[in-house]
Structures are given as C-alpha cells and as structure tokens.
Amino acid sequence: MQTTAEATAMQRALELAQHGLEADPNPRVGCVILDAHGDVVGEGWHKGAGTAHAEVVALAAAGEAARGGTAVVTLEPCNHTGRTGPCVQALLAADIAEVVYAQADPTPEASGGAATLAAAGVTVRGGLLADEARAVNATWTFSRGAGRPFVTWKFAATLDGRSAAADGTSQWITGEPMRRAMNARRARCGAIVVGTGTVLADDPRLTVRDAADQPAGRQPLRVVVGDRPVPASARVRGNDGRFLQLPGSDPRATLESLAAQGIHHLWLEGGPTLAAAWWRAGLVDEVVCCLAPALLGAGPAAVADLGISTIADIDRLRLVEAEHHGDDLALILNPLNTTKEK
Ligand SMILES: NC(=O)c1ccc[n+]([C@@H]2O[C@H](COP(=O)([O-])OP(=O)(O)OC[C@H]3O[C@@H](n4cnc5c(N)ncnc54)[C@H](OP(=O)(O)O)[C@@H]3O)[C@@H](O)[C@H]2O)c1
C-alpha cells in the first residue's frame, strides 16, 4: 500500500528524471529520499552515462537523514557495476528501510536489484506510476525489448509527395519554423542516419543547431550508410569525432552496430532509397512527415519502390499527431504493419 507521501514523491522523481538527456545511452532516472517521517530529505537525477546514478545523488543530498527512510525511484535500482557502482549497495550502506520504484529494470545485467534489496531485509515495492516512468524512457524501454534502437523516419515532401526537384536539389522544401522544430526532435536522438546518396547530393551537415544557428554542445552521432566513399570535404564529417560511415546495405546490421554503441533512438533522414529499404525490412517505428504547401510536379518521391503494385497492398499508417510550424504541417504517424519483408 503506497502512502500519499510516496505517490507525491514519485511524481516529483518523474519530474526530476526528465532533466536527464533523452539521447544519452542510459535511461533518465529520478529519485526522492523520504526520512522515517515521510518528509523529503534528498533529491537526485541521473545526468548521463559515467555520472552518478539518481539514487546516489539523492542519498548524498540526504546524508544521515536517509537512515531508516524510503527511497522513491523511477527505475528499479541497478544491481551491477557498470561505469559506476551498483545503487543497491549505496542504498544498503545508507541504511534505507524501504524502496519504492516505478519501472522494473528490463536490462538483464542491471536487473535483480529489487530481489537483492529484499534479501537484505529492505521492504521493496515496484510498479507505482510504472506507465508514466516507461513513457519518460520510451525509446530506451523499446530498445531493451526489441534488442535494437527505435527508428524514426523523417522526411520533407511537397503536396505531390516529392522529396527533391528533378535536378536532385531539395534544400529547402519546408520553412524555417519547421526546420527549427525538427532540429529539436533530432536533438533527442542518439544518431542521425542517411544514405550515401543524400550526402553526395546535398552535402548536409546533420548537426543539431542552437538558437544562434551554432552547433549545439552535444551532437548525435552522424551515420552514413552505403559503400560509396564519403568525400574528405563532406560537411557531414565535421571535426567533433561524431561521424561514422557504415558500409553495406543490411539495415539490421546497421541497427545492431548502433545498438552496441548505446544508441536507443535513431533518426533516419533518408533519402528515398534508404527509407524504402528500411521500411520494407519492417524497421521503421515512427514516421515524421513534414509536408509543405508546395508543388514540384517532377522529381523523386519521398520514398522509393515499396514493392506495392496494387491498391489492395497499400501501406497505411495511423495519424498520431499533427503540428503546424509556419505554413508547414508535421504529421506524426505510426506504421500499422511493420514486420513484413516484401
Ligand atoms: N526531402 C527529404 O526529406 C530528403 C531527405 C534526404 C534526401 N533527399 C533527396 O534524396 C535524393 C537522394 O536520394 P537517394 O535515394 O539516392 O539517397 P539515399 O537513400 O540517402 O542513399 C541511397 C544509397 O544508400 C546506400 N544504401 C545503404 N543501405 C541501403 C539499402 N538497404 N538499400 C539501398 N541502398 C542502400 C546505397 O549506397 P551505396 O551504393 O553507396 O552502397 C544507396 O545508393 C537527393 O536528391 C536528396 O536531396 C530528400
């Protein structure tokens, strides 16, 4: 039975968790320490891989007041030594009497924290606001279950579905407000992926920009897939060490390689050939279509051949949200059938 103080503390822990970086390999976690009377004596959140976990930060803030108290945390305390020590040991060392957590840890090497705490005599309860906690780490949670990153495919198109003009130019189809909105979404991903075709045609930077149009402090990995060489002068290379070319054409191999680098959310920016290959492999989980009120009449479609020759085989998507940015419309969509190979 959860107390009101614990429910309030979990709401606060969820708020704290959201100070963390979505693009970080680690999940976003918040923690509130209540003393034996149910008063808040410490708060913490995880700032990202290699830094102290939320429980450790909150315990440090609480000091001696944590003794006999309750730790309220959005994710089951970890049980393993990664870049930092296990939170379970920190909680036991602080003499915490109860642990209330929201989401069970789906990571095999980090899970088991609840059982270890219970075996050591701590009262442990899980599941309080678990759905809300999963939503805070939606793509991280997805990647634990699916064993690969969550893939968002974003493209810009005209009303007639063109993603470039007949001469291959495509910058820019949408206006500045849409590009700013997409920049913010991009920043929440661990990697941006394009094919060699897009790099050779557009020479994009693929960086996240700040309000002054300067590169933001933390950049997603810029990944180019395909065998053709990326020119030494290509802007995508940058000089921050965040560029990677992955040769080959197997999307699953690309996802596996990026998952191994801690990427749990990937932003696929095209072009039409690469997007079609990933779509046909059933590896697109979300679509962001940036639609401009404009016509080209000729030029490549937003996506290449999907192997559909008759209307009965049409691929439909579910509209989740529609956003206006300037004169443009962003449609956020979910594929309805993502597991087919055509
Ligand atoms: N409007 C938009 O949102 C948008 C976005 C991006 C691009 N574009 C436009 O799209 C055009 C470029 O289109 P594109 O289709 O050539 O570019 P692309 O899809 O970025 O690149 C295609 C290349 O990706 C490589 N590749 C890697 N895995 C693959 C797979 N599984 N299947 C097929 N190819 C794979 C191949 O290169 P290798 O031969 O090197 O192996 C292939 O030629 C440009 O005009 C650009 O302006 C528009």
Structure notes:
- Helix 3 runs parallel beside helix 4.
- The protein folds into two domains: 4-136, Cytidine Deaminase, domain 2; 143-335, Dihydrofolate Reductase, subunit A.
- Strand 1 (30-34) and strand 2 (40-45) form a beta hairpin.
- It is of the alpha/beta class.
- The model has no long low-confidence stretch (mean pLDDT 94).
- The radius of gyration is 23 Å and the shape is elongated.
- It has an eight-stranded mixed beta sheet with strand order 9-8-7-10-6-11-13-12.
- 26% of the residues lie in helices and 22% in strands.
- The protein is built from ten helices and 13 strands.
- It binds NADP nicotinamide-adenine-dinucleotide phosphate.
- Residues 155-156, 163-164, 168, 170, 173, 194-198, 201-202, 225-228, 249, 251, 269-274, 277, 300 line the site of NADP nicotinamide-adenine-dinucleotide phosphate (NAP).
Topology:
Elements: H1 4-17, E1 30-34, E2 40-45, H2 54-62, E3 70-75, H3 87-93, E4 98-103, H4 113-119, E5 123-125, H5 130-136, H6 138-146, E6 150-157, H7 176-187, E7 191-195, H8 196-202, E8 221-225, E9 243-246, H9 251-259, E10 265-268, H10 272-280, E11 286-291, E12 317-325, E13 328-335
Parallel strand pairs: 3-4, 4-5, 6-10, 6-11, 7-8, 7-10, 8-9
Antiparallel strand pairs: 1-2, 1-3, 11-13, 12-13
Helix pairs in contact: 3-4
